[in-house]
Amino acid sequence: MSKLLEIDKCSVKTLYSAVDVWIKKPHVVNKRLAGATQSSFGAVSDTPELHQLLSSLLKTDVENSGIFQFIHASDGKREDDALGLWSVAVRTIIPKVTQTAERKFKEVIIKELRLYLMKRMALEKTVSLHALSPEQWFSDGVAYPKLSWLYSELLPKLSRWALEDKASDFKSTLSLIPVEKYSLLYQQLKEKYRHLVKVWPEVTDPEKFVFEDVAIATYLLVLWAEERIENGTNVKQSFVDLGCGNGLLVHILNNEGHPGKGIDIRRRRIWDLYGPATNLEESAITPNNGFLFPTTDWLIGNHSDELTPWIPVIAARQIFFLLSFFVLPCCFFDFCGKYQRRQCLKSQYKEYIDFITEISSVCGFHTEEDCLRIPSTKRVCLIGKTRRYKQNEEALVEEQRSNYIRGREGLFSSSRTCTSAEKLDQDGSVFHNCEQNPSSAAKDWVNGFHPREKTESVRNCVSLPRDLVEAVVFKVAMTLLNTENSQCDDTWNKGGSMMIGDVASLLDQPTLQALKNECGGLQTLLRNNHQVFRVEGGWVFIRDWRTNAPGQSSRGTSKCKPPPLGALKTRLCWFHTHHPNGCPLPSQECAFAHGETELRPSTKPRKKLEHDQHNVSH
User: Fold this and answer.
1) In the chain, % of residues over pLDDT 90
2) What local confidence, expressed as pLDDT, does residue 115 receive?
């Protein structure tokens, strides 16, 4: 079988990069795989040498095989001045745990790196896929899918990767640990702790957070097992998880035999389900001499928010360099406030990862970076195990640490203060008070650090006075209905559009100040009132329910299923009450009540108000 796909603007470099993705990370395409490991046998310079090497690897005569039929076909086109070179490697394909989990799938990888072939491929601008005939093809449905899968799934992927040429800012996943060991252990732990999904008492998504923490625990357990082998010991590492949140990571590590504890400023409901064997402590954490752990092996910062930049510092200030650290950054914090971007050539996430790496380096660590397999966009971890300096240089390095922290502290003391009531980050994390405060519990390390409040208020505009919200909604809606770009059909005024910045200019200063104290401010208030408004790309529109039916995306135009029966007629229709032309829908088609007589009590169960999902979990 031979399939060919023409592509444009494909360089030799990008083509080989695309092939390398398939060779090194087959799980990206084949979801039944956990990954692959590769061992290289080096390069050979001619076909006879390649023949001899393959025969020894495969323990059979390969002269008449399909491989050499293809090789000999290209060998005849060799140019006299071409540099012949074959790169040979063996990869072991690692399936996810199934009935075939214990089987070893090994493949010989051959790359032809001749100059003439590079020229020919660049000119043809093609990606071709050659396989054995259907009669010779072996398929187990796991490591080796059906023959049709190669050209329906693999070939299009290879061509797309060749065209994109997108080099990742980060390393490949699981680059610091054995993938095979990780895959086996992850499947075991996933089954072992699957029951927690059914009893999860938090408001966060149980499947996401349970399996994410299972994956993080798996990574640490494999990393630590490899460390014990390296150090020649059977003693399991101890740990402290700062800002442990829901405590599930601590629960798993304790359950798997590692002594340690988790500390968080706020107790979670799920802590009660773990039992006494899980060591969790409710306490405010401040970076000072009271939070050193001289008998602990590892310090963990798993989505540790305002503590993230302090993790390498706390680890570095231990006695006899005993403490290593693992940190999985999420929200962007500096030592005593929100991290301020310094350049625009990188993504914000990449820049922040580099910032934490810089702190680790200043603290004296050799810092390693890896990418976890978790259901999150923030999955790059940093690990510091060894120091770059000798023990007698500790005083000098400590002076460098202190100067660096004071320099970062000066960025906040010289700028305006920011209070914990000011705003939330996009993912919901709170940025706390950054102003200088000599009475801070962390005054011996830095001024200005404040741990998050034990009880955090809900600030998504739902607690604003109802009359204030109604006044804002009415003023904005009436302005849209009377703008010069308002659209009127035969019967109904659709209103115009305004940028949110212009909408803000309609409001008085006290109202604007009240909105600034809420997450998202004016935009959140408008989105909350989606019955009246449609907010897209920074513009505000009047919602036309004739095209935006109940339950439909704001960008959709087609009809969709109506809302649940219990959600009908539980609120008054704003358009029926306030719009000059009334509601564009007849009463029987509108989800909202046209007058008090149509109002019905809501059947939706009331839930206890919690702060954002991120802070509840982590």
Assistant:
1) 32
2) 42
CA distances from 211 to 114, 188, 196 (A): 46, 12, 10
First-last CA distance in the chain = 52
User: CA nearest 336: which of 420, 242, 435?
Assistant: 435
The DSSP line for 397-437 is: HHHHHHHHHHHHHHHHHSS----TTS-B-TTSPBP---S--
> What's the confidence (pLDDT) of residue 98?
54
In angstroms, rounded to a whole number, what is the distance separating the alpha carbons of residues 39 and 566? Answer: 61
**Percent of residues, the chain, with pLDDT higher than 70:** 72
Q: Which two tokens stand for residue 169?
A: 């800012």
Phi, psi of 613 (to 5 degrees): -60, -35
> Which pLDDT tens digit goes with each residue over 160-178?
777 665 666 777 789 999 9
Round to whole Å and give the CA distance between 200 and 194: 11
In angstroms, the CA 545 to CA 591 distance is 10
pLDDT exceeds cutoff 70 at 281: yes
Distance, CA of 462 to CA of 365 (rounded, Å): 46
Residue 370: closest CA among 571, 172, 122, 593 = 172
Q: Does the pLDDT of residue 605 top 50, yes or no?
A: no
Q: Is the dihedral of CA 544, 549, 554, 555 positive or negative?
A: negative
Mean pLDDT, the chain, integer: 78
Q: Which amino acid is at 61?
A: D
In the sheet that 324-328 helps form, which strands lie side by side, from edge to edge? Answer: 280-282, 260-264, 239-242, 298-302, 324-328, 380-387, 365-371
pLDDT score of 320 more than 50: yes
Structure confidence at residue 429 (pLDDT): 33
Sorted by where each starts, the structural domains of the chain and their CATH numbers stand as: 2-164 (no CATH), 237-413 (3.40.50.150), 466-598 (no CATH)
Give the per-residue pLDDT at 229: 96
The torsion defined by the Cα of 433, 434, 435 and 438, in degrees rounded to 10, comes to 90
Task: Pull the structure tokens for residue 552.
Answer: 């439909």
Rounded to whole angstroms, the Cα distance separating 339 from 352 reads: 8
DSSP secondary-structure letter at 143? S
Residue 558's pLDDT is: 40
Burial 405-437 (b: 16+ CB within 10 A, else e): beebbeebeeeeebebebbbbeeebbbbbbeeb
Task: Residue 301: name the closest of 225, 364, 220, 375 by CA.
Answer: 220
